[in-house]
Amino acid sequence: MAQTEKKGGLLRKSSASKKPLKEKVVLMYDEIFTTEDPSKCNPRFWEELFLMKVNLEYLEGKLEALDGEELMKIKDNINCLFQHCIQALGEEHPIRVVNALQTLCALIRGVHQKNKSTSGFDIINMLVGFDKAELCMKNLMESLDSLLCAEGSESLKSLCLKLLLCLVTVTDNISQNTILEYVMINSIFEAILQILSSPLSRREHGYDAVVLLALLVNYRKYESVNPYIVKLSIVDDEATLNGMGLVIAQALSEYNRQYKDKEEEHQSGFFSALTNMVGSMFIADADEKISVQTNEAILLALYEAVHLNRNFITVLAQSHPEMGLMSTPTSPVPTTPVTPLGTTPPSSDVISSAELPLDADVQTSNLLITFLKYSSIVMQDTKDEHRLHSGKLCLIILTCIAEDQYANAFLHDDNMNFRVNLHRMPMRHRKKAADKNLPCRPLVCAVLDLMVEFIVTHMMKEFPMDLYVRCIQIVHKLLCYQKKCRVRLHYTWRELWSALINLLKFLMSNETVLLAKHNIFTLALMVVNLFNMFITYGDTFLPTPSSYDELYYEIIRMHQNFDNLYSMVLRISTNAGQWKEPASKVTHALVNIRAIINHFNPKIESYAAVNHISQLSEDQVLEVVRSNYDTLTLKLQDGLDQYERYSEQHKEAAFFKELVRSISINVRKNLAFNTLSQELLLKEFSTIS
Prior knowledge:
Distance between the termini: 33 Å
Strand order of the largest sheet: 1-2-3
Radius of gyration: 31 Å
């Protein structure tokens, strides 16, 4: 018997030369695309249609092939198909429900494709008709809500979420997607929360649910009252918030694991041997090849949770064994599609296991640690646009955390010590730190390490000014908390001071190039004021008196950099020009640093002359510093421990609009035909009762 092949909705015998035969479902689609009512000749037309396996490709292609005028001619049939799809969602037979959901996906996407190129074309009118839109969409949302909350098929729930993601992302700019007005009116927020609070549902659908929520929160968020924002901000159920945190932690852990695997594979490969052979000249190129696609969607979800919900802050510190280090319980393969590296939803929920192995060698972790590791990876390479956006969002999230009183309490808690292995960029002048030598410290030390790492590694021609400003602001906010609560943090402050001085040195060395693009004096002022903060209030939060002495030692040792900075800002502030005012602010801010240098340098020179020493040791300089504090006069500077709180709407609206557009395009791309495949679903519903 000749083998039958299928292609594009056509059936043909490979050995015959006869005209190809069309599948029955394709013939039925063709009837819909005429101006006649298909149920006139066949009263059971709609009933039969939803028993047929959907041909998504053919249906979408057919819709896209028509121009706006042709589509308007068959509008009544399209409306009828849409309404019958919604009716079928209430059917008992799961096969009909599956087919209806997939047909809706094809209809929404196909009609939207036409909307792109045809001006004045109204999507809602085309799909449902204005007169029936409100009732139809209400019925659709209620059916989806019921399917998501029911105890039935997990595959159906997965398909419902796919349809909702399809609905949300058909336009690049989700705020221009008028269908979402009905998703706002007929909220599915509680259904999303139910998925996140149940271990089984969370394991199967948590990733899609979290991404969907993040997108819905961003619909017209600045223009009108978005009910999803209001509801997310007041969630206080512990199981739900922890569930959301787990989904985010697992997605970020998966990214971190994939990056580590690639890094190890890279280091053990041929390129590593070649790099060792020819020196470090290829380090930058080699590092760029260790590339795992960033996951802005899950990062956006973390941001919205941290920014909108004060209760979510507690989830950041919720301890659990490090994901990826412990064996995970076996679970059914999720119906979530295979997505690009870095966006793969986790396949199992390690915390849902009733009993966790108590293994002394398993490092305890939490969402914040996982996020800090993720940040340390994506912030390495800011040349790539996606990584730049990810890096910026990481710093915005850390800004929100650094402003929160409760978050600061656990960040600085001496009883909550962790070993956080951040990724460090390969650099010629330093060796890679051994993981085992990392001390257990309060989490704020890891945040400061991350900031220092960024400051040290991004002094380059394409200077990421915005990220540097955010970095310094985060350090400043943490210091303000330490000063206010008199927290004496045992941290290697010298590393931070050294990084800040090197940053000032870089700004001065590249003054001409940088001033053509940036106001470098704003950043210089922030750096100088960090030093002023240490000078003025350091005795209240530095761990020991000797730490305060070391601060003075560093300022004196690196005095040439401060002298050069003063000369530069004085020169610019005395000339008329656009930088006169910002430069003069730096001049005034340097008053105490210059007082320290001018007070101690002569005394150090005198000590050296009296004791006939050509070069003083650090201990000798510190001895001079300690014995001459009494005669030092400093000016009291106001406002050093004040800062402007983060505000999304006024400063970040454009960034988030662009970010959400990028996420919408990416999510839509991953909802390809194969992800809506029926094979798994049909196996589950192989019998129709």
